[in-house]
């Protein structure tokens, strides 16, 4: 099952349909992803930035039916950990400050691992496309909305809607975010945690940055995108936190930073003396065969954004 460039991405931004898009440097190299016995192939791809709304997106993606198949077959236990990710800490702190019986929806709740750890006095709701993950979440006191149409009809119901590591999976992110904003009560909060394309770590070769080396990751947020979206929907950005997604051990962090420095010097200055010296050193000479950046999830490449709905407002 291969990726392709769907018509709404051919020369257009999938967020706002603008044709003012800019191709970022580099070409994403093809790779395969396995889910049980199925193989999904990412074809060569490019990364674009929309000059109008600021969305950063991959052009070649799987079709909707292949994505459905992938999410049905992917092993959700890969993300099941009882430890909090650094990106989840400000969100949990916010949830624990909510008044009793506040209604919170975790859109893409997986097995319910985040809400499970939140304040038991809040009402916990979830939506999840992977049925076994949703079933597990329902055993943890989380009320599951099984149908997206039903969910969209729950206008002005929730005090908070969370999209944790979901935005990057969306083929048309702006349309869904607008739907999610409509579910908020006045004064409610939309919280998004996702990869931030403005981060320093992905400026050298963004198509091959670890985040886009996932076949499931289709876009990244930017500050410009968040501000454009807030203006369009009459929301206010009340928080923007940048952090690493993972807790990485100190020695691993240092090793990752060193590998990046070596890769960048070789990538940007292939004829440099530094490369010449490395080629003559045991072990380090192997770095010359790197064709893509080494994995770099120790970077501060995530943003957690809090969008607040005013107490009295009318969404477009
Ligand atoms: Zn756009």
Verbal overview:
This protein has 316 residues and is of the alpha/beta class. The chain folds into three domains: 67 residues, no CATH class; 176 residues, Rossmann fold (3-Layer(aba) Sandwich), CATH 3.40.50; 40 residues, no CATH class. Helix content is 26%, strand content 22%. The chain has nine helices and 13 strands. The strands form three sheets. Strands 8-7-6-9-10-13-12 form a seven-stranded mixed β-sheet, sandwiched between helices. A four-stranded antiparallel β-sheet has the order 1-4-5-11, with no helix packed on it. A two-stranded antiparallel ribbon has the order 2-3. β9, α6 and β10 form a beta-alpha-beta unit. The radius of gyration is 20 Å and the shape is globular. Zinc ion (ZN) binds next to loops.
Q: Mind telling me which CATH architecture of the largest domain this is?
A: 3-Layer(aba) Sandwich
Question: What is the number of strand segments?
Answer: 13
Roughly how many Å apart are the termini? 38 Å
Strand order across the largest sheet: 8-7-6-9-10-13-12
CATH fold type of the largest domain? Rossmann fold
Would you tell me the structural class of the helices and strands?
alpha/beta
Shape: globular
Q: Outline the low-pLDDT stretches.
A: none
Helix tally? Answer: 9
- Strand proportion, as a percent range, falls in 15-25%
Percent range of helical residues:
25-40%
Largest sheet: 7 strands, mixed
- State the domain count: 3
Associated small molecules: zinc ion
Order of helices and strands: EEEEEHHEHEHEHEHEEHEHHE
**CATH superfamily placement of the largest domain:** Vaccinia Virus protein VP39
Alpha-carbon Rg, integer? 20 Å
Overall mean pLDDT score? 90
CATH class of the largest domain: Alpha Beta
